[in-house]
Amino acid sequence: MVSAVRTVLGDVPPGDLGVCDAHDHLFFGSPRLPGQELRSVAAARAELVAFRDQGGGAVVQWTPYGLGRRAADLPPLSRETGVHVVAATGLHQFVHYDEDTLAGLRGRLADVFVSELTEGIGASGVRAGLVKVAGGFHALDAHARWTMRAAAEAHHATGVTVAVHLELGTGALDVLDLLCGELGVPPHRVVLGHLNRSPDLVVHRQAAESGCYLAFDGPSHTHHATDWRMPDAVRALADAGFGDRLLLGADTTTAAARSVGGGPGMPYLLRRVRPRLVHAVGEDLVGRILTENPGRAFAVEWH
């Protein structure tokens, strides 16, 4: 079995990623966030430099189809900053798209995913390294089921990981029932995101027992006071033997949230989250969560 992480500059061995922000966005734009689009190449470069200066080595960008990925800008940004970047295909929740965009994908969604994974995103030639999809709040609507079926097809065709946005951290077990139970995606090829936003230790444990990866990604939003609970959730999973299944990310989605815009941004992950977790579970485990685990989670496998 051979494995490599597919970055925008080509495949690299999983052990070469360095310290990895396992869920973030260099570029992102949604009608749900008017005026807060991540469009600036200069700002993206500054954010990568700030992350690198904190010791960062890789960023996995979860921005999917139709939300302003700017794929052609990713390779030069990676070269200029020395930070590995992984791009995504996939589709977000229904609310992020207009009906014409979705109508144009009916009947061919899996083919689009596979094409972007094997041939490249548009004319950029940049191959995606994962599929990102999304669930709903405590449920999976028809759109989520459609996109997850296409993601499963793309996984079976290419071997890539399926990364899942969990709305406010909910619906983890329903996602696993569909992707892994019904659609046959191996659990170790699934990453569940935003579990920090629903600090349900029982659900976390049940999800971990499936063999999937669990991502604690992004500071709490307003009125979602979960940051202080996150170290306890990580410690509980580590104590139960699931430390090798944990991932960390900063999930910067708006211009105001970038460090260059006055927000926490990518550097916050290493400047504040890392030492807080070291206090909870020790430096050795946090180091493995930031380096070894992402390499395994996002590696493409083939014989």
UniProtKB/TrEMBL annotation:
<dbReference type="GO" id="GO:0008270">
    <property type="term" value="F:zinc ion binding"/>
</dbReference>
<dbReference type="InterPro" id="IPR032466">
    <property type="entry name" value="Metal_Hydrolase"/>
</dbReference>
<feature type="modified residue" description="N6-carboxylysine">
    <location>
        <position position="132"/>
    </location>
</feature>
<feature type="binding site">
    <location>
        <position position="25"/>
    </location>
    <ligand>
        <name>Zn(2+) 1</name>
    </ligand>
</feature>
<feature type="binding site">
    <location>
        <position position="194"/>
    </location>
    <ligand>
        <name>Zn(2+) 2</name>
    </ligand>
</feature>
<dbReference type="Pfam" id="PF02126">
    <property type="entry name" value="PTE"/>
</dbReference>
<feature type="binding site">
    <location>
        <position position="251"/>
    </location>
    <ligand>
        <name>Zn(2+) 1</name>
    </ligand>
</feature>
<dbReference type="GO" id="GO:0016787">
    <property type="term" value="F:hydrolase activity"/>
</dbReference>
<keyword id="KW-0378">Hydrolase</keyword>
<feature type="binding site" description="via carbamate group">
    <location>
        <position position="132"/>
    </location>
    <ligand>
        <name>Zn(2+) 2</name>
    </ligand>
</feature>
<comment type="similarity">
    <text>Belongs to the metallo-dependent hydrolases superfamily. Phosphotriesterase family.</text>
</comment>
<feature type="binding site">
    <location>
        <position position="23"/>
    </location>
    <ligand>
        <name>Zn(2+) 1</name>
    </ligand>
</feature>
<feature type="binding site" description="via carbamate group">
    <location>
        <position position="132"/>
    </location>
    <ligand>
        <name>Zn(2+) 1</name>
    </ligand>
</feature>
<protein>
    <submittedName>
        <fullName>Phosphotriesterase-family protein</fullName>
    </submittedName>
</protein>
<keyword id="KW-0479">Metal-binding</keyword>
<feature type="binding site">
    <location>
        <position position="165"/>
    </location>
    <ligand>
        <name>Zn(2+) 2</name>
    </ligand>
</feature>
<dbReference type="InterPro" id="IPR001559">
    <property type="entry name" value="Phosphotriesterase"/>
</dbReference>
